Every structure is written in structure tokens, then in C-alpha cells.
């Protein structure tokens, strides 16, 4: 029996339909998508007879995740299929933006302007081997494959349980997965499941331009954003050394952060990308000849084994060294022009230290009210709110300035890796052998998925104080942004990512390889899940 999505052509049609359901992050389409997805799954014979096994859960801002459970009456071993349905925006499509969700029409439009593209894209366009569209690679195709797999399992009575979970917001803050962790624990308890594998369906990400190798991933890289609020000393532009611009102060730390190998990690022969600055700018809102005295910087750091406390320790050391260098240069300038320095040093504080100081000065009620008022501001996102809270505290504790306040800004993706797990080693051997024998397809193991994924929120291994440092130094930590670290520790199964091959995620030339997505990868994953089920309980 082929069911609804059992043939390559049916799977292709499903994928194009999912792409057609526009679901950009923070749009009405993202809100409506899980309702449409539920209705689609309810067309399956299995879920028509077991509607209670498909459900939606609340996230935030009216967004919801969806879970669907195929349950074999004699099995406890369970594979969890993870995907996200939100996409990035379509601004780069320009005039073709209305076609970004219509793969057939978009391809026709591309054919008319093919001379605009690079040779590789022109070749792929002419080959007929690819489908184009926003989200078709990242990652509506992965979701479609999972839907076809759970249907096939139900029709063929596979001796294993399968949970399908698809979430919103992966592209922004991963709220969908963070909220979904508790649902996975509830399903495990309610149905007596034993999670043995968290299998994500993110697509293959090229390691470098032109890379056409196909990978499977036994982990996912971590991402954290150490950030700094720089508070100088305001002055008139005509008396520059009577103060210190926060812009000047910030350059010392940014120079030490950018591309700094101190943050590099090498694990299983793979190395983290170097840190870069994501945001830097003063917080002055109007023009005047008063010098800028508040600047914010947000840095991107990738991790493999380090936790939040490890990163903060390195960050703090660099901040103290940069403050000392800045102060030394300031004193030298003052001496050169024959004036006394107007301040003695530049303080470096962690956000938690600033909070302790402000609490002693003003009381806890003041801090709680400040945080509450900031969190209620609908015009700010969680990163703006983080800086705003630290800014107000420091504005009212100017005796600590000039200074640098160190904090974390969301989101945080803890690294996860299962490469040394014997079960994963067996899965990798099975998948690579099966792909080669059946499709002459070489799949190469990569230890860390380099595109960042929701696998970061399962199988959390850190048992030290790493997460405490994150909680204490993230100003918005709580209702607007939190990570269920302890619940994540309970989702102990190893992780794996197997997805289809494509190119140019987040670009207007985003495209999906047709044969790989609709013929090869579905069969390879099906073989793996059946193999897991046949191992028995």
C-alpha cells in the first residue's frame, strides 16, 4: 500500500503543498501552519481511527507545536522525528517574493532571468534536478519526509513507536522546541515510551561553497551570545578627555573578541568557527554634541564542549584585559596634553554582580518592577530587553562607571553530540552501508551539524554550574526566555540528523535535490527505523 505519500511523486506534491503554506517567523502563517498540518495528518487512516494521538501545544504569541504518535501495541522503543515549520523572510527575492512559495512558478521566473545567476545555479536550473522555494530545503522537505514515514509505519505495522514533532520559531529563538520538551516527557510517561533516538531532519549544509558531499550528523554545534554594555563618561565634544565615549571603550573588547582563537574548540577533528560581532552600536537616540556614553555589543560564539560558564570566564578575562588597555591609553593621552585623568579605572562586572549591587542600593522590589516593565514592552525583542534592563540599572548606579557589564543575550543553543554512543555508531554504520548498497550514495559522518538545530534541547549533558551562570547573567531569563535544562537532561536518548541534500538555505536560490529528497533519503531513514524496531524491546 502506498497511502497518501508513499510514492516519490506524492511526496513531492506534499512538500510543495507545505511550502505553499507560508509560515515566516512571527507571521500569521506561522500561527496557522500547525492547524493545517494537523488537518493533513488527520487524512491518514491511522489518525482517523486514533485522533487523540495528534495534538497541538501552546508556545507563545498564539504559536503552537504539533505532535503525532504512531504506537505499536507491543513496542516501547520509540524514535522521535524532529522538524520545524517556520521559515525566514523573503526580502531577497525582490519582485519575485510573491512566487517564493510556489516552486513551479518560481522556477519558470528563474528561467527568464537565469543569466543573473552564478554558473553553478545556472547548471542546477537547467538540469531539472532541483525544486526552488523558500523553506523547501530548510526545512519543509524534512517535515514531509517525516509525515510519509509515520504513515508508512502505520500502514506496514512497524514494530516501533514513532513520535513526530514539528515546531515553530526555530529560526529565531527556538521557543517551539523549548516549550515542546515538556510535551515529549509527558508523552513518554503517558504512553510508556522508551526514547531511543532523537532524529532530526535538517537538510545537508555545505561545509564550503561548491561542496556537494552528503552528510549525516551525530551532533549539533552550540551557539551562545556573550554581550556587553559599555558605559563611558559623557562630556561635550569640545572637551573630549573630560569623559570617555562608550564607542571608544567598546572597540577594545570587540578587537579582542573578533576572530579570537581563544574560543576555538576542536572535537573529533572538527573545529568551531571563530567568534564574530553580530551587533555593535551606541544607544544614543538623538543628535547632540554630547558624546555617546552607552554602547552595546553582541558577539556570536560557537561551542562544542564548553558550557555557558566556560564562555563567560573567557569573556570576562578578555573584558578585564581590554578595560586595562583602554585605561592605559587614556592615561597616556591625558599625560600628553597635561591634564589629570578624570577617573581612576574602568570596572568590569557580570550582570549578576550589577544586580546584587543594585539590590543592595534600591531593594529587590525596584529591580523586579524594572524587569516587569521592560518585559511588558511590545516594541522590544528579547535582545533589546536584555540590554535595556542592564542599561537602566547602570544609569542608576553611575558610581560604577565607566564600566563594562557582561551578560548573555538569547538565544542559547547548547552543543549536543552522540558520536561516541555505541548505538549511534551502529546507526551510522547501518545508514552509510545501506545508502551505498542501494543507491550508490556516499554519506559522510559529520560530528556537529553546522547550521544550528533544535537537537540542542534534548540529551543535555552538563551537570556542572554551567546553566546557572546562564540563568544569572541573562537579564530576560524567566517568562520571556528560559531553557528547560533539567527537563532536557531527562531526554536521554542520543541524537542523529539525516536530511535531504539541497543548496543555498536562506538565499533566494534555496533549492532541494529532487531524487535525493523524494527517493533516497526517505528509504534510508525508513530502513534505519525498521532496523531499530526489529532489534526489539
Automatic annotation (TrEMBL):
Pfam families: Peptidase_M20. SUPFAM superfamilies: Zn-dependent exopeptidases. This is Arginine utilization protein RocB. It comes from the Bacteria. GO terms for molecular function: hydrolase activity.
